[in-house]
Design brief:
Elements lengths: L10 E2 L15 E6 L4 E2 L3 E2 L11 E6 L2 E5 L2 E10 L29 E6 L2 E12 L11 E6 L4 H9 L6 H21 L1
Parallel strand pairs: 1-9
Antiparallel strand pairs: 2-5, 2-8, 3-4, 6-7, 7-10, 8-9, 9-10
Protein backbone atom coordinates (compact mmCIF):
# COMPACT_ATOMS: atom_id res chain seq x y z
CA UNK A 1 0.00 0.00 0.00
CA UNK A 2 1.20 3.53 -0.72
CA UNK A 3 4.80 4.35 -1.58
CA UNK A 4 6.22 1.04 -0.31
CA UNK A 5 4.13 -0.83 -2.87
CA UNK A 6 5.92 1.05 -5.66
CA UNK A 7 9.46 0.29 -4.48
CA UNK A 8 10.99 -2.70 -6.24
CA UNK A 9 12.80 -5.20 -4.06
CA UNK A 10 15.14 -7.94 -5.20
CA UNK A 11 16.32 -11.16 -3.63
CA UNK A 12 20.01 -11.76 -3.02
CA UNK A 13 21.92 -13.69 -5.66
CA UNK A 14 23.46 -16.84 -4.21
CA UNK A 15 24.92 -18.25 -7.41
CA UNK A 16 28.47 -17.92 -8.65
CA UNK A 17 29.80 -14.89 -10.50
CA UNK A 18 31.88 -16.12 -13.43
CA UNK A 19 34.92 -14.19 -14.65
CA UNK A 20 36.09 -13.30 -18.14
CA UNK A 21 38.45 -15.83 -19.72
CA UNK A 22 39.93 -16.12 -23.19
CA UNK A 23 36.84 -18.12 -24.21
CA UNK A 24 33.89 -16.26 -22.67
CA UNK A 25 32.77 -13.12 -20.89
CA UNK A 26 32.07 -13.16 -17.18
CA UNK A 27 28.66 -12.69 -15.62
CA UNK A 28 26.87 -9.68 -17.08
CA UNK A 29 25.75 -7.21 -14.43
CA UNK A 30 23.15 -4.46 -14.70
CA UNK A 31 24.57 -1.45 -12.88
CA UNK A 32 22.14 1.04 -11.32
CA UNK A 33 23.22 4.32 -9.76
CA UNK A 34 22.84 8.04 -9.33
CA UNK A 35 26.43 9.00 -10.13
CA UNK A 36 27.90 11.27 -12.74
CA UNK A 37 27.56 10.47 -16.40
CA UNK A 38 29.25 11.15 -19.70
CA UNK A 39 30.99 9.22 -22.46
CA UNK A 40 34.14 7.13 -22.11
CA UNK A 41 36.02 9.00 -24.80
CA UNK A 42 35.41 12.40 -23.17
CA UNK A 43 35.13 11.18 -19.55
CA UNK A 44 32.73 12.39 -16.90
CA UNK A 45 30.74 15.35 -18.19
CA UNK A 46 30.00 18.41 -16.06
CA UNK A 47 26.73 18.72 -17.98
CA UNK A 48 25.52 15.87 -15.75
CA UNK A 49 25.98 17.50 -12.34
CA UNK A 50 26.78 15.20 -9.44
CA UNK A 51 24.07 14.95 -6.84
CA UNK A 52 21.20 15.09 -9.31
CA UNK A 53 18.50 12.51 -8.89
CA UNK A 54 18.70 11.01 -12.36
CA UNK A 55 19.05 7.26 -12.23
CA UNK A 56 21.50 5.69 -14.67
CA UNK A 57 21.36 2.09 -15.80
CA UNK A 58 23.97 0.26 -17.84
CA UNK A 59 25.86 -2.97 -17.98
CA UNK A 60 29.30 -4.45 -17.64
CA UNK A 61 30.77 -7.91 -17.09
CA UNK A 62 32.72 -9.39 -14.20
CA UNK A 63 36.31 -9.64 -15.39
CA UNK A 64 38.07 -10.65 -12.17
CA UNK A 65 37.12 -11.76 -8.66
CA UNK A 66 39.53 -10.64 -5.97
CA UNK A 67 39.78 -10.40 -2.21
CA UNK A 68 40.96 -7.55 -0.04
CA UNK A 69 44.10 -8.39 1.94
CA UNK A 70 43.45 -12.11 1.53
CA UNK A 71 40.03 -12.06 3.26
CA UNK A 72 38.36 -14.62 1.01
CA UNK A 73 34.87 -14.51 2.54
CA UNK A 74 34.47 -10.95 1.19
CA UNK A 75 35.13 -11.01 -2.53
CA UNK A 76 35.11 -8.05 -4.89
CA UNK A 77 34.13 -8.17 -8.54
CA UNK A 78 36.16 -6.07 -10.95
CA UNK A 79 34.89 -4.65 -14.24
CA UNK A 80 36.86 -2.75 -16.88
CA UNK A 81 35.32 0.07 -18.91
CA UNK A 82 35.92 -0.91 -22.54
CA UNK A 83 35.66 1.32 -25.59
CA UNK A 84 33.72 0.40 -28.70
CA UNK A 85 36.72 -0.89 -30.65
CA UNK A 86 36.13 -4.41 -29.34
CA UNK A 87 32.32 -4.67 -29.34
CA UNK A 88 31.20 -8.29 -29.38
CA UNK A 89 34.61 -9.81 -28.67
CA UNK A 90 35.46 -11.76 -25.54
CA UNK A 91 36.58 -9.28 -22.91
CA UNK A 92 35.47 -6.40 -25.12
CA UNK A 93 32.75 -3.81 -24.86
CA UNK A 94 29.03 -4.46 -24.58
CA UNK A 95 28.59 -1.42 -26.83
CA UNK A 96 28.16 2.26 -26.07
CA UNK A 97 24.43 1.83 -25.40
CA UNK A 98 25.09 -0.71 -22.62
CA UNK A 99 28.71 -0.60 -21.36
CA UNK A 100 29.07 1.56 -18.26
CA UNK A 101 31.31 2.11 -15.28
CA UNK A 102 30.94 3.67 -11.85
CA UNK A 103 31.31 7.34 -11.05
CA UNK A 104 31.10 9.51 -7.95
CA UNK A 105 27.63 8.96 -6.50
CA UNK A 106 27.21 5.33 -7.60
CA UNK A 107 28.70 3.78 -4.45
CA UNK A 108 26.19 1.67 -2.55
CA UNK A 109 24.02 1.09 -5.61
CA UNK A 110 23.13 -2.41 -6.75
CA UNK A 111 24.70 -4.59 -9.38
CA UNK A 112 21.93 -6.88 -10.57
CA UNK A 113 22.12 -10.19 -12.41
CA UNK A 114 19.28 -11.47 -14.56
CA UNK A 115 18.29 -15.10 -14.17
CA UNK A 116 15.39 -16.09 -16.40
CA UNK A 117 12.96 -13.22 -16.13
CA UNK A 118 13.99 -12.13 -12.62
CA UNK A 119 16.71 -9.80 -11.32
CA UNK A 120 18.78 -10.54 -8.20
CA UNK A 121 21.18 -8.31 -6.26
CA UNK A 122 24.61 -9.74 -7.06
CA UNK A 123 26.76 -6.93 -5.69
CA UNK A 124 27.11 -3.53 -4.11
CA UNK A 125 28.99 -1.00 -6.26
CA UNK A 126 31.91 0.31 -4.25
CA UNK A 127 34.78 2.16 -5.93
CA UNK A 128 36.63 3.14 -9.10
CA UNK A 129 40.34 2.71 -9.83
CA UNK A 130 41.55 5.45 -12.14
CA UNK A 131 45.22 4.43 -12.59
CA UNK A 132 46.36 7.77 -14.11
CA UNK A 133 43.08 8.15 -16.01
CA UNK A 134 40.15 10.45 -15.30
CA UNK A 135 36.75 9.55 -13.83
CA UNK A 136 34.54 7.90 -16.44
CA UNK A 137 37.31 7.42 -19.01
CA UNK A 138 37.67 4.22 -21.00
CA UNK A 139 40.23 1.97 -19.33
CA UNK A 140 39.17 2.66 -15.74
CA UNK A 141 38.22 -0.20 -13.44
CA UNK A 142 35.22 -0.44 -11.13
CA UNK A 143 34.85 -2.69 -8.11
CA UNK A 144 31.98 -3.92 -5.99
CA UNK A 145 31.39 -6.29 -3.11
CA UNK A 146 30.05 -9.61 -4.39
CA UNK A 147 26.87 -10.61 -2.55
CA UNK A 148 27.32 -14.41 -2.82
CA UNK A 149 30.32 -14.26 -0.45
CA UNK A 150 28.48 -12.29 2.23
CA UNK A 151 24.88 -13.48 1.75
CA UNK A 152 24.97 -15.62 4.93
CA UNK A 153 26.12 -12.61 6.97
CA UNK A 154 23.40 -10.42 5.42
CA UNK A 155 20.71 -13.03 6.16
CA UNK A 156 21.93 -13.41 9.76
CA UNK A 157 22.09 -9.64 10.30
CA UNK A 158 18.65 -9.03 8.80
CA UNK A 159 17.12 -11.87 10.85
CA UNK A 160 18.39 -10.30 14.07
CA UNK A 161 16.58 -7.01 13.40
CA UNK A 162 13.15 -7.37 15.01
CA UNK A 163 10.15 -6.08 13.14
CA UNK A 164 7.64 -4.19 15.26
CA UNK A 165 4.48 -6.18 15.79
CA UNK A 166 1.03 -4.63 16.03
CA UNK A 167 0.87 -5.41 19.75
CA UNK A 168 4.26 -3.80 20.49
CA UNK A 169 3.30 -0.74 18.49
CA UNK A 170 -0.05 -0.42 20.30
CA UNK A 171 1.67 -0.74 23.71
CA UNK A 172 4.25 1.86 22.73
CA UNK A 173 1.56 4.29 21.65
CA UNK A 174 -0.47 3.63 24.84
CA UNK A 175 2.53 4.48 27.06
CA UNK A 176 3.47 7.64 25.17
CA UNK A 177 0.58 10.01 26.22
CA UNK A 178 1.03 9.52 30.00
CA UNK A 179 4.77 10.17 29.61
CA UNK A 180 4.11 13.38 27.72
CA UNK A 181 1.57 14.56 30.32
CA UNK A 182 3.95 13.78 33.19
CA UNK A 183 6.75 15.66 31.47
CA UNK A 184 4.54 18.75 30.99
CA UNK A 185 3.63 18.92 34.69
CA UNK A 186 7.27 19.02 35.77
CA UNK A 187 7.96 22.29 33.97
Amino acid sequence: DGILATIATYSLYTGTLSTTTHAHNGTQLTIVGYGGSGYGDIRYSASYPLGTTVRRVGGNVVDVMTSLNGVTDCLFYQMDFDDNSAVGTVGGSLGNDIETTLCTGDSGGPALVNVGDEYFVAGVNTLVSLEDLEMGEYGTFAFGIAIPGVSDWIAYTMASVPEPSGVALALGLAVLPPLLVRRRRRR
